[in-house]
Amino acid sequence: MVSFCETCGSLLVPTRDKSGKISLFCKVCKAQSKEKFKNSSYQIRSKIKHTEKDKLTVIEEDFDIRPTIRIGCPRCQHFEALYWEGEDRRKEEWETTTFYKCTKCGWVWNE
């Protein structure tokens, strides 16, 4: 059962008072419902239980989705590089240039 605050319209959450009775409380305007529930279907939990499916795996290493090609790096002579196409603004005409980045040393060059 979902209840809303009569004053501000926010969601009311169940709280337990000192006598053990449950009442509904608004976290926004601090209003409390007039009715008390002794044995109700409300359950008050402070910890969320997560299943194995809900857990998230974080990958800490760098991950690049650009494709790789076998080409020699001019700096370290390693034969694997990432490549992508972009515009070289140093040229007079805006033309597409292929850029390469060595997977070993990180050197970037174009041809």
Percent of sequence in beta strands: 25-35%
Question: Quick check: average pLDDT?
Answer: 81
- Structural class by secondary-structure content: mainly beta
β-strand number: 6
**What is CATH's topology name of the largest domain?**
N-terminal domain of TfIIb
Rg estimate, integer Å: 31 Å
Write down the overall geometry. elongated
The CATH architecture designation of the largest domain is: Single Sheet
- Largest sheet descriptor: 4 strands, antiparallel
SSE pattern: EEEEEE
**How many domains is the backbone divided into?**
2
Strand order of the largest sheet: 3-4-5-6
Distance between the termini: 67 Å
Range of helix content? under 10%
Poorly predicted residue ranges: none
CATH class of the largest domain: Mainly Beta
Number of distinct helices: 0
Describe the model.
Helix content is 0%, strand content 26%. With 111 residues, the chain is an all-beta fold. The protein has two domains: 43 residues, N-terminal domain of TfIIb (Single Sheet), CATH 2.20.25; 43 residues, Single Sheet (N-terminal domain of TfIIb), CATH 2.20.25. The strands form two sheets. It has a four-stranded antiparallel β-sheet with strand order 3-4-5-6, with no helix packed on it. β4 and β5 form a beta hairpin. The chain is elongated and about 80 Å long. The relative contact order is 0.13. The mean pLDDT is 81.
